[in-house]
Amino acid sequence: MGQIERGPADPERTKRMDQFKKDLDFFYAHYDEWVAVYPDHWVLVYGERLVGAVKTIEELRELGEREGVPMSGVSKYLNSKPVMLIV
């Protein structure tokens, strides 16, 4: 197989990916704390801060728009009950 040719690195994309990783790490560092305070809520993280916690996906979208969070912000649902996945 041939090698895939890549163009020059996109510094803006790299910056967004770096921020996404930081935000994801921030989310997981605070998960236990937040699930106790905001069970069954959606949380939105951006800029290594909790932007907010809301009950519905519609409110999450509105929160992101209102706060100017780009699509690269981290949004996760804090399920109060453990979920077992059978794979």
Features:
87 residues; three-stranded antiparallel β-sheet; 2 helices; globular
Question: How would you characterize the overall build of this protein?
Answer:
It is a single chain. By secondary structure, the protein is an alpha+beta fold. It has one domain. It is built from two helices and three strands; from the N terminus they run αββαβ. A hairpin with a 4-residue loop joins β1 and β2. The chain starts with 10 loop residues before the first helix and ends in a 9-residue tail after the last strand.
Concise overview:
The chain has 87 residues and is α+β, with helices and mostly antiparallel strands. It has one domain.
Task: Report the order of strands and helices.
Answer: HEEHE
Outline the low-pLDDT stretches: none
**Fraction of residues in helices?**
40-55%
Q: Major sheet: order of its strands? A: 2-1-3
The structural class is: alpha+beta
| Percent of residues in β-strands | 15-25%
> Could you give a short account of the major beta sheet?
3 strands, antiparallel
Shape: globular
- Tally of separate domains: 1
Mean model confidence by pLDDT: 91
Count of individual beta strands: 3
Q: Helix count, per DSSP?
A: 2
What is the terminal separation in angstroms?
Answer: 32 Å
- Rg, rounded, reads 16 Å
